[in-house]
Amino acid sequence: MSRRPDITFPLAPGATIGILGGGQLGRMLSLAAARLGFDVMILTPEKNAPASRVAARTLVAAYDDPAALDKLAKACAVITFEFENVPAAALERLAARGALTAPNAKALAVSQDRLVEKTFLNGAGLPTVGFTAVDREADLVAALKRLGAPLLLKSRRGGYDGKGQIWVRRASEAADALAAIGGGPAIAETPADFRRELAIIGARGRDGEIALYPLTESHHENGILRRTTAPARGAEKAFAEAERIAATLLTALDYVGVVGVELFERDDGRLLVNEFAPRVHNTGHWTLDGCDVDQFEQHIRAVAGWPLGPTRAERAVEMINLLGDEANAWAKFAAEAESRLWLYGKTSATPGRKMGHVNKLTRSNSG
Ligand code: AMP
To answer: Which pLDDT score, from 0 to 100, does residue 271 have?
Structure first.
C-alpha cells in the first residue's frame, strides 16, 4: 500500500506522532511534541513506561504485535523510534499499512548490525577502526593473524553500553571469547587507540536541510556514559571533521530526524566513527539546557517536516547521568542554582540504570 494521501508536510499541530519505545528518550520526545501541539502515541511492551506517563496514548504490546502496529499505522501521521532494535518485521508491517516512518528502515537496519554499519560507513568514505566478520573460532584466529592483537570482539547485533564485547589477545583465547559473547555472528575490531571519546548530534529535515550541534566530549565508566562536557574543549579542528562526518552520514542515509554519532579522537587529532544511533541520544541531553532548540524538539521538527531550529550552544553544560540510587539525591540537585534536573519517572532503581540526569550550567559560552 502506498502512503496515505491525507498526510501532508509540514504536519499541522493536532496530528498524532507515533513512537516505538517507552523509555526516557520517548518521554522527552513526548514532552517536546506536546509543546508543539502534537499528540503522541507510544508502542511499548512495558506497562506504566516512562514515556506513557506523558504521552497522550499508549499501546502496551510487543513491537511485532500485528494488531498494535495496525492501530499505530492508522492513528499516526508519522512514526519514529526511541531505540534502534525494532524488529524488521514491525517496520515491514507499518510500511504495508501505508505508514511513514522517520528515520527510514534502511537507517535502522544499518545501525542494528555492527558489521553492516562499519561497512556502510567506510563505503560512504567515513573512517572507522579496522574490522572483520567473525562467525566461528577459525575466523577469529585468522583475524588475529591478519589484523594483529589485541582485537575487540563484539556481537554484531544487540549489544549496548559495552555489553557483548571482550578483548582477545591470542589465538588460544578465541573459543572462550566467542562463547563469552554468546557465539557468532560477531565482529572483531582493531583497538581505536583514542585519547578521548567525542560525540556529535546532527539533524536532517524532510527538505534535506542539515543542522549540527557542537561537538561534545563523552566520559564512560564501565561502558556506560557518565558525563558529557559540552561543547568539547579545544576541538576546533575536530569539529570541522565531525561536521563533515555527520553531514555525510545523514545524506548517505537520506535521513530524516536526529542522529547521534559516537567518535574516537586519536592522538594525532584524527577522528574515527565508532557507531551511530538513529535516534536522539544520551550525549545530546545537554541540549535541553544548553541550546534554544534541544535535540528532542529538533527531532520532532524534522519528522514533522518543520524547519530545523538553531543548534548553537547558548550555555556550556556538564551533563551527568544519574544511575541507580544516585537519583535519590534529587533534593540536593533541586537546591543547586546551576543544576537543571531531569528525572525519568522509573520506579525501580537497579544498579547502573539511567534514572535521570542533571545538566550543570558550568560557564557562559563565548563561542
Ligand atoms: P560500543 O558498544 O561499540 O559503542 O562500545 C562501547 C565502548 O567501548 C566505547 O564507547 C569505547 O569506550 C569502547 N570501544 C568500542 N570499540 C572500541 C575499539 N575498537 N577500540 C577501543 N575501545 C573501543
So the answer is: 97
Backbone φ, ψ for residue 312 (5° rounding):
-60, 145
52/41 Cα distance (integer angstroms)? 8
Nearest CA to ligand 1 atom 23: 192
CA distance linking residue 296 with residue 82, whole number of Å: 10
User: Residues with beta carbon inside 6 Å of ligand 1?
Assistant: 129, 152, 154, 159, 162, 189, 191-192, 197, 220, 223, 262, 274-275
Q: Of ligand 1's atoms, which has the minimum distance to the CA of residue 194?
A: 21
Residues 288 and 296 sit within 8 Å (Cβ to Cβ): yes
- Quote the pLDDT of residue 160: 59
3-state secondary structure of 283: helix
Q: Compute the distance from residue 193 Cα to the ligand 1 centre, in Å.
A: 10
Measuring from atom 2 of ligand 1, which residue has the nearest CA?
162
Q: How confident is the model at residue 236 (pLDDT cuts 50, 70, 90)?
A: confident
**DSSP one-letter code for 113:** B
| Predicted local confidence at residue 2, as pLDDT | 61
Average confidence (pLDDT) over 311-322: 98
User: Residue of the nearest CA to atom 1 in ligand 1?
Assistant: 162
Give the Å distance between the CA of 274 and the centre of ligand 1. Answer: 7
pLDDT for residue 367: 43
Strands 165-168 and 78-81, how do they pair?
unpaired
Ligand 1 centre from 94 Cα, in Å?
33
At residue 5 the predicted structure's pLDDT band, cuts being 50, 70 and 90, is confident
Residue 275 CA, ligand 1 centroid: distance in Å:
9
How do residues 71-97 score in pLDDT, each as one tens digit? 999 999 999 999 988 998 899 999 999
- Strands 78-81 and 16-20 come out as parallel
Peptide bond preceding 214 in cis form (omega within 30 of 0)? no
According to DSSP, the β-strands at 151-155 and 131-134 are: unpaired
